[in-house]
TrEMBL record:
The keyword Cell membrane applies. It comes from the Bacteria. It holds the Pfam family MatE. It is a multi-pass membrane protein. Keywords: Antibiotic resistance, Cell membrane, Membrane, Transmembrane, Transmembrane helix, Transport. It is found in: Cell membrane. Belongs to the multi antimicrobial extrusion (MATE) (TC 2.A.66.1) family. MepA subfamily. It comes from Bariatricus massiliensis. InterPro entries: MATE_fam, MATE_MepA-like, MATE_MepA_subfamily, MdtK-like. Its main location: membrane. This is Multidrug export protein MepA. The lineage of its organism: Bacteria, Bacillati, Bacillota, Clostridia, Lachnospirales.
């Protein structure tokens, strides 16, 4: 191969390299969240029924998260493995991993589309829809599901672009789709009069364009590793390796839907549609806060994986320290703004006085524990980058499945509807402390057994 873009991951000065990898990845993540955030902003301002439409679309979030979780399973499970192989100069193996992930994404696309199309109505009711909101939820998800394959490829394969050191190209693949989405949203929602259906259609058109961009790059000579026909198959051993590492990001994203089901159900029982609407806004703000950190981690992760494969201990340790400082700084600053000035965020999504009052009251509580969550996100990303599947899986389960869901069911019995909001900071603080201890213990073992 003529192109050796990946080699800069092991040779370029760390500070410069981290900035060049992290900034485009942060931009890509921020742009990516616009797919849903922009939809919600426009939907929330539809005259006459914007508040109910916003709540209805909020009920579809768990399905969207499950779909993206499967793309993370393949992409975030395979890309670090491919980067490790690039560090070892084993380009053929890296392409085999890419091919297997492509096959997995194809299978996931078909299965998810069929299942959710067939069961969408009962699923939406289970996720918190009511008679007032089910129509809007159905309108949105019915069109969105048509573009499942585009979402899978755009998200799942883009990690292989950043994983070879092409962070700017990975950012552009997201930027192109987001710009199209932002342009189409007001046209289809308001000008054409499609309402919620227009928001969904704008999203899948933009994802289709991103998908085409990603696939075109990964089949071109510009890519260090390429999608090749002979490798697009479900190789059993490769799938097992991808699954071992991919199950962690899969659980982190898919359990987000389980968390939303639990939170929305509890809010519906103890508070009603108004509180379910507030959670839709809080979830959107949570994305705005966590996305920059996820972007930094996604950008920095290939540096960790490549140098781990190459046996560069000092670069791995130096990279982690910088990533930890960046992640923690961002969560402290952004959560601090949400806690002190909640109205800055809430007014982006609604102008309804009752919904604003509830959201502004609960937002400081909801984001209190997330101020230090940058610690967990940095540690979790490092575990994945270094191929530490078991501990990464435990951490993925800890915050949401082991802590948050039970707390969201138990605390409302004592504190009413506010107990649902108390559950989030309690789970965040406990999981951060546990993760920090596990990281210190695990890294000591890794350093003792480091490749000589």
């Amino acid at each position: 191969m003529e192109n050796r873009q990946d080699e800069r991951l092991g040779t370029e000065k760390l500070g410069k390299l981290i900035v060049s990898m992290a900034l485009p990845a942060v931009a890509a993540q921020l742009i990516n969240v616009l797919y849903n955030i922009v939809d919600r902003i426009y939907i929330g301002h539809i005259a006459g029924y914007g508040d109910m439409a916003l709540t209805g679309v909020g009920v579809t979030f768990p399905i969207l998260m499950i779909i993206s979780a499967f793309s993370a399973f393949a992409g975030m499970g395979g890309a670090p493995l491919a980067s490790i192989q690039l560090g070892k100069k084993n380009y053929r193996k890296a392409e085999e991993i890419l091919g297997t992930c492509t096959a997995l994404l194809l299978v996931f696309s078909v299965v998810l589309t069929v299942i959710f199309m067939a069961a969408k109505t009962p699923v939406l009711y289970a996720f918190g829809a009511t008679e007032n909101t089910i129509t809007y939820a159905q309108q949105y998800i019915s069109i969105y599901l048509i573009g499942t394959v585009f979402v899978q490829f755009a998200l799942g394969l883009n990690t292989f672009i950043s994983g070879q050191g092409n962070a700017k190209i990975a950012m552009l693949s997201v930027l192109i789709g987001a710009v199209i989405n932002i342009i189409l949203d007001p046209i289809l929602i308001f000008a054409v009069g499609m309402g919620v259906r227009g928001a969904a259609l704008a999203t899948i058109i933009s994802q289709a364009v991103s998908c085409i961009w990603v696939v075109r790059f990964l089949t071109s000579k510009k890519s260090v590793i390429r999608i090749k026909k002979q490798f697009i198959r479900l190789d059993k051993k490769t799938v097992e390796h991808i699954a071992a590492l991919g199950i962690s990001p899969f659980i982190m994203q898919s359990t987000e839907s389980l968390v939303l089901i639990t939170l929305n159900s509890s809010l519906k029982n103890y508070g009603g549609d108004l509180y379910v609407g507030s959670m839709s806004i809080l979830t959107s703000v949570m994305q705005l806060i966590s996305i920059p950190v996820q972007g930094m981690n996604q950008g920095i992760q290939p540096i960790l994986s490549y140098n781990y494969g190459a046996g560069n201990k000092d670069r791995v340790i130096g990279t982690f320290k910088r990533m930890l400082a960046l992640c923690l700084s961002v969560t402290i600053v952004l959560c601090g703004i949400a806690i002190l000035f909640p109205e800055i965020f809430s007014r982006l999504f609604t102008d309804k006085a009752e919904l604003l009052a509830v959201t502004d009251r609960v937002m400081p509580i909801y984001f209190l524990g997330m101020t230090v969550f940058g610690i967990q996100m940095a540690c979790q990303s490092t575990f994945i980058a270094l191929g530490q599947a078991k501990v990464s899986l435990f951490i993925a389960l800890l915050r949401k499945v082991i802590l948050l869901i039970p707390l969201a069911l138990i605390l409302p019995r004592f504190f009413g509807v506010m107990g649902v909001y108390y559950a989030e900071p309690a789970a965040d603080i406990i999981s951060v402390l546990t993760t920090a201890v596990l990281f210190v213990v695990t890294m000591k073992k890794i350093l003792r057994n480091w490749q000589k």
